[in-house]
Amino acid sequence: MAWKGGRATVITALGTTQTLSWASSYYLPAVLADPIAESLGLSRDWFFGAFSAALLLSGLVGPIAGHAIDRRGGRSILAITNIVFAAGLLLLAMASNLAGLALAWAVLGLAMGFGLYEAAFATVAGLYGRNARGAITGITLIAGFASTVGWPATAFFAEVYGWRGACVIWAGLHLLLALPLNLLLVPPAPPPPAAGSAAPPAGIGAPRAMYILAGVFAACWFVSTAMAAHLPRLLQALGTTPTLAIAAAAMIGPAQVAARLIEYGLLQRFSPLTSARLAAGLHPIGAGILMIVGGPAAAVFAILHGAGNGLLTIARGTLPLALFGPAGYGLRTGLIAAPARILQGASPLLFGLVLDRAGPLWALTLTASLTGLSLVALLFLQPPRPASEGAAAP
């Protein structure tokens, strides 16, 4: 039977399943780390060590996942990933010691490598070719609420059913909600173009551009993860009251969504490279204001950081597509994302050490320097010249 669904249906389905996948994996430790560690008689360090290892594993398998999506399309890969997510969550619910915890996070690491943003981006790149930018933005716009939905949902599940029950509920949602959405609402991808059947886009295969993007995304995601773990404490160290620090940190989510709405509308007329440069520049501007003004500028910093983070999430998908085209997109984005996934695991620990031992100004200087250097690196890339489509848009 021919596929009847439209692009909006695909975006909604993938945005929903991505929200569930992020909420039940990446955002799970923020709520369940303490009860799980206490129940298993382990320190938080052991729990987050297992989580960091899962992030490392997800980065290592990301290129394999992308290559598989390039060859077969994303529908079946994402559907299988929902089963793997469910298996990892059930193993976590049954864990009784460190070995069980490590096994559960290893399975969840595989699921994250095959089932988070890069996989969804590769799926729509295979479906829509160079016209996938709007779909990528739409997916991130919906999934931008993963923490907003996931944290209170996990807290509610854990309060009512315990942390083991919370894991079981998330596993059930993967099987009963996400799996049918991926199977029924995501169409099969058209066959990949034959080698040499289309003119390669400008810059395809250029290793320099690949290295630049990998470095930029690694640096920016180091900063993003560090802020997610330590922002309230950083703001308090700079003179903000605990209440205002929490209020300012809560503005990151709305700022991300607002920036993605701007990308979906106003910035669509510009190259994704313009959006990426803007995104990389917002954090150092906010950091400079915060270092000069101090605590009263906490909200300004949070808004600028959140907006930049929201745009960079989209750039992870749209910039490689614009520079290299849809051919081999999944493998390419997996390779580009691998350093970022690996650094994410070390970011909270490393940034925390700088914050504790060198102080908040040096910690903020570190993040501003990393994002500022990312902006400089992006200036060495040129917007792609018009090129023939690598895949026809339906």
Polypeptide structure, described:
- The protein has 15 helices and no strands.
- It has 394 residues and is mostly helical.
- It has two domains: 179 residues, MFS general substrate transporter like domains (Growth Hormone, Chain: A), CATH 1.20.1250; 173 residues, Growth Hormone, Chain: A (Up-down Bundle), CATH 1.20.1250.
- α3 packs antiparallel against α14.
- It is globular, with a radius of gyration of 20 Å.
- It starts with 6 loop residues before the first helix and ends in a 15-residue tail after the last helix.
Q: Decide which structural class fits the backbone.
A: mainly alpha
Terminus-to-terminus distance: 16 Å
Number of domains: 2
Low-confidence stretches: 195-205, 387-394
**What characterizes the major β-sheet?**
none
Q: Indicate the overall shape.
A: globular
How many runs of DSSP E, i.e. beta strands?
Answer: 0
The number of helical elements comes to 15
- Fold-level CATH name of the largest domain: Growth Hormone, Chain: A
In the CATH hierarchy, what is the class of the largest domain?
Answer: Mainly Alpha
Give a brief outline of the structure:
With 394 residues, the protein is mostly helical. The chain contains 15 helices and no strands. Helix 9 runs parallel beside helix 14 (329-357).
